[in-house]
């Protein structure tokens, strides 16, 4: 029943984020936060590697050398810093950060 515990963790996280977003008037952002965690790409990995004490992505990373769930998640959720990193076309460094929106 690890899938159920993982679902509870996701739901609790989203509830906490919603409460905080609603307090500052970010209703849409609160409602839409981390919906990708329910997608099969993220949810099935999370359920498989669920331990209850740390991120399932860490366990997947240890086994495979990368986390497919994390790569999927950070590429679809603008609230993660990693979403805003891209190749640096100026040639000064391999990667560079883009400006994140204030919201």
Short description:
It contains five helices and two strands.
Tell me, rounded to a whole number, the average pLDDT: 95
Strand content: 5-15%
Category from helices, strands and their pairing: mainly alpha
Count of DSSP H/I helices: 5
**Overall radius of gyration:** 16 Å
Question: How is the main sheet built?
Answer: 2 strands, antiparallel
Percent range for helical residues?
Answer: 40-55%
Low confidence ranges: none
Q: Total strand count, please?
A: 2
Strand-and-helix sequence, N→C?
HHHHHEE
Number of domains: 1
User: What is the molecular shape?
Assistant: flat
Trace the largest sheet across and list its strands: 1-2
How far is the N terminus from the C terminus? 37 Å
Sum up the structure in keywords.
flat, two-stranded antiparallel ribbon, 2 strands, mainly alpha, about 100 residues
What does this structure look like?
By secondary structure, the protein is mainly alpha-helical. The chain has one domain (about 1-95). Helix content is about 50%, strand content about 5%. It is built from five helices and two strands. The protein has helices spanning about 1-25, 25-30, 40-50, 55-65, 70-75; strands spanning about 85, 95. It has a two-stranded antiparallel sheet with strand order 1-2. Helix 1 packs across helix 3 (about 40-50), helix 3 (about 40-50) packs across helix 4 (about 55-65) and helix 3 (about 40-50) crosses helix 5. The model has no long low-confidence stretch (mean pLDDT about 95).
Tell me the layout of helices and strands.
Elements: H1 2-23, H2 27-32, H3 40-49, H4 56-64, H5 68-74, E1 85-87, E2 95-97
Antiparallel strand pairs: 1-2
Helix pairs in contact: 1-3, 3-4, 3-5
